Amino acid sequence: MNSVKILIIDDDEDLIVSTKILLNGNGIEVIGAINGEEGIKKALEEKPDYIFIDIDMPGMDGWETLKKIKSHEELKNIPVAMLTATSLSDSIDREEIEGINDYITKPFTREDIIECLRQVYDF
Questions:
Q1: Does the domain formed by 4-118 have CATH 2.40.160.50?
Q2: Whole-prediction pTM value?
């Protein structure tokens, strides 16, 4: 795979901007959404190769966003990693783990994102 389009769904706009600065170019295009509803809309429009979703967002949280994304036929096979400020095992149960490929604890590095992508794509 020569280039990868990723979608970051997080209510922290600064995190989205810094992730774009960190990753745009070098074969990675970053798209951002500041809430679950916008994230679902952008996922449907952009068809990203990988989606990163913050667990703790106001309104529609990350788990609800994940369920809605996976309910769309054209999105259900897109790999997803959850973004969390705490250890994932502290905040979820087994059923929630089933819908994700990975998780990243914030703050994350460029290498954390690349590692998620490498697990799925030849990147």
A1: no
A2: 0.90
